[in-house]
DNA sequence: CCTCCTTGTCGAAACGTTTCGACACATGGT
DNA sequence: ACCATGTGTCGAAACGTTTCGACAAGGAGG
């Protein structure tokens, strides 16, 4: 019952060549005659040869797996699921696996994961798990800039938050807002820091604090503060918080967009499910995941030297929550 | 700079024993003197030895990775994220990695993942990717029963949907509902099939169809049909649909719970964020993920024979959406 | 003293790749 | 004829584990 696995030796025997030739023919390295190469490929296919990842890893000293660490927030699931999907697909298309890295602070066990590279989504200053992860001897790419001064990732992929925030504020202003409240997290992430920088440059825009890993009460409290300050437009930055705000506003009998305008930063399916649909900036998380994998592959397998920076585009999705009339 | 890795030979030399002894001491197999065992452990720790996963895999013929496939739905993210987290943690605590399996239908590439076992979340009859996955030569555990007759997973972990549905319906009835509309998916999943079975046994309970992978319009349409049939309580089965329904009801000016009662089947953070908070049955997805990994580990590493069935508990979380007065 | 069993240790083979260096042969220039 | 160069192929070593079978030492029982 447990059939012996088909090895490269079987292919070699069946094709009448050496294992060296098989290896070179299949990988495209070395100098093999085109005719031989073709024959070997056909034979391999025929007898169902799949190279052993273990043997290859052992020889190459690479595990063939990339790790993905996503922080343990209470919200923002949609974003991370899509990010993970994009990353997993990109990894597989490069012949690598994407391994989920749990929020674990035991170095021993994390080392046992044997990954060749690590993707960290939304690194936050002070995350203890992240601190441990940084001590792993593998290259790391962050999605969004890591503000920790001790961090030296080999790559960063991030959206143009400066531009996107500006576009969002312009849009809300154009929609008739005269006093805009931006509910933003602090500067423990580059994201929050950049948003705040844009806001600081503008008149009639005030920033209200909302924790990065917020509880619903945090969000509603921030909304109340903004309303008390006579804001007529609310821009919610953290993923998922716009929904909370909408519920809260509707609970208080405040109409959107008639009484106040509402916009979100991070887009996602739930914003299109909500009524009214909520205006948001779409930063495609799948693309982001793919880019992160690409950067890591460049470093790990292609041996790229030096830092890699990838920018993913942001698109403003204008919806009913900022449309009056 | 690229330091040579610390191997078992280094440990052997440093401890003055053979590699055999090191291997046996660290793994606890074989018959090693307790004193030697202790010394080897200390030395290994000291010089920072981490066994090579690749070498071990090669020798053992196991990759040390479990795969997780989650269907590509438009909703239900929270559930799957928690499931994945639980599974990843459980896997790591067994010294294995959890690999994300993308929704890909290329057998070649999927084989290249080299996983020892596969967890499939919510198998749906007719899923083409699932069909391909079944042809992989690895044991498979499903979360929820696979209704496909050609499916023969080695394990199933599922909640007591029969009991949970009954409890939910009882609760809603006790809260004052006289005509309960249950919005449930069809019987392409065991989940839907079981819910329908419970409903069929009851008076004053009608079932309305809602696709498993629903778009928001599908959900709102089903809600409208239920309301047109004079229902005074809505029980939404698919994950995430209760939120859509709540938005829709509020948009139509219908108050919850005053005008109609609302309850969800799958619980999640967003149901506690909503206003009013929505009653739901909590089936802890983390526990579910852990159980799935446990079953797979039993089969793959401990060589368990025969089918494994694990039941995870369900708890009714009563909230404001079904509380009148 | 010889045999038998137990206990602790070890040498060496095997797992399946990739790749270095060598070899054989052909080609073309001197 | 000889050498230099280029092309296609291959043997064998190496990657780091686990484990089978063997061996030595020590006691128990005859």
Automatic annotation (TrEMBL), chains A, B:
Keywords: DNA-binding, Transcription, Transcription regulation
GO MF terms, alphabetically ordered: DNA-binding transcription factor activity; transcription cis-regulatory region binding
Domain HTH lacI-type stretches: 6-60
Pfam families, sorted: LacI, Peripla_BP_3
Presence of the UniProt keyword Nuclease in the record: no
InterPro entries, per database record: HTH_LacI, LacI/GalR-like_sensor, Lambda_DNA-bd_dom_sf, Peripla_BP_I
SMART domains associated with the record: HTH_LACI
Name recorded for this polypeptide: LacI family transcriptional regulator
Organism listed in the record: Nocardioides albidus
Lineage: Bacteria, Bacillati, Actinomycetota, Actinomycetes, Propionibacteriales
């Amino acid at each position: 019952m447990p059939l012996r696995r088909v090895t490269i030796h079987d292919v070699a025997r069946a094709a009448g060549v050496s294992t060296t030739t098989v290896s070179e023919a299949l990988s495209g390295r070395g100098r093999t005659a085109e005719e031989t190469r073709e024959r070997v490929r056909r034979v391999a296919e025929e007898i169902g040869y799949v190279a052993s990842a273990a043997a290859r890893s052992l020889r190459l000293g690479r595990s063939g797996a990339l790790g993905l660490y996503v922080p343990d927030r209470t919200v923002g699931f949609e974003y991370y699921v899509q990010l993970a999907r994009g990353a997993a697909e990109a990894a597989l298309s490069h012949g690598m696996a994407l391994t989920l890295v749990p929020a674990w602070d035991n170095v021993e066990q994390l080392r046992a994961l044997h990954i060749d590279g690590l993707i960290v989504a939304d690194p936050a200053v002070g995350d203890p798990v992240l601190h441990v992860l940084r001590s792993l001897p593998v290259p790391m790419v962050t999605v969004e800039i890591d503000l920790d001064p001790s961090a030296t990732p080999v790559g960063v992929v991030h959206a143009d938050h400066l531009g996107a925030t500006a576009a969002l504020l312009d849009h809300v202003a154009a929609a008739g807002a005269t006093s805009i409240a931006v509910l933003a997290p602090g500067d423990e992430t580059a994201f929050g820091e950049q948003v705040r920088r844009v806001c600081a440059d503008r008149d009639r825009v005030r920033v209200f604090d909302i924790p990065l890993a917020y509880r619903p009460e945090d969000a509603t409290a921030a909304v109340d503060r903004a309303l008390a300050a006579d804001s007529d437009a609310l821009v919610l930055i953290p993923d998922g918080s716009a929904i909370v705000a909408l519920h809260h506003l509707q609970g208080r009998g405040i109409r959107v967009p008639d009484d106040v305008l509402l916009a979100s930063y991070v887009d996602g399916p739930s914003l299109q499910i909500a009524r009214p649909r909520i205006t948001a900036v779409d930063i495609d998380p799948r693309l982001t995941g793919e880019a992160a994998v690409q950067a890591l592959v460049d470093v790990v397998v292609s041996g790229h030297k030096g830092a890699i920076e990838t920018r993913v585009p942001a698109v403003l999705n204008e919806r009913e929550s900022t449309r009056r009339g």
